Each structure stands twice: as C-alpha cells, then as structure tokens.
Recover the amino acids of this structure.
C-alpha cells in the first residue's frame, strides 16, 4: 500500500515562508514532485526532484521555492520563501516509477493535499 501524506500547509502573510513535508510509505520513489491546484484551474507542476538529485522548477517559483528530499526518512520537502497571494493553492506531492521524470510525466501516486493560503 502506497501512501503520501502532506503536512505543513497553513495561512501566512505575503513575504512569509512555509515548509511543506510529504511522508511517503510503501514505496521508495526515485521521482517525486510537488503540484498545486486552484479551484476551477488545471493542476500545475511546481517542483520536481530526480533520483540523482536534479531539480526543476516552474518559472513562477524559481528563486523562491526549494525542493529537497531525505531518502533515509522517505520524506519530500518544499521550502517556500517570499510567498505571494498567487501561491494560494492546494499543494499535492506525487511520486512515480519508471524511466521518465518530469513535471509533464504521469504520476502514479498522490497525496491528499495541504492548503496554502497567502494574504
């Protein structure tokens, strides 16, 4: 049974910081990512980290967000600095197997989401 559980969301003021965590169980995934979605809009890829440590980010968050992972804890993180109201979304972590690893890939496993609200 594969489970991804996000935590760390909440409400912060513009310019503030927040750190999201994603506890992963049932799989040691080499490709994990963060996505976000606002009501009525398409899901948006935010950041991804490959098994080799390579990271990629959406242009909208480059320089502000940092994705990292702790393989020993099987935990994924998203450090969000300089938060803006437009960062207000439900944030989801996701994992996949196979060769491909990009924000355009099809991810097999998803968390339930954690809400981030910036005002």
């Amino acid at each position: 049974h594969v489970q991804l559980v996000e935590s760390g969301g909440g409400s912060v003021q513009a310019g503030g910081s927040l750190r999201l965590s994603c506890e992963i169980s049932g799989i040691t995934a080499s490709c994990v990512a963060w996505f976000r979605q606002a009501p009525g809009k398409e899901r948006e890829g935010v950041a991804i980290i490959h098994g080799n440590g390579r990271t990629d980010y959406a242009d909208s968050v480059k320089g502000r967000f940092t994705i990292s992972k702790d393989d020993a804890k099987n935990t994924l993180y998203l450090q969000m600095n300089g938060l803006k109201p437009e960062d207000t979304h439900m944030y989801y972590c996701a994992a996949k197997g196979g060769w491909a690893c990009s924000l355009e890939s099809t991810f097999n496993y998803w968390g339930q989401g954690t809400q981030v609200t910036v005002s």
In short: DSSP finds no helices and eleven strands in the chain. The longest strand covers residues 18-25.
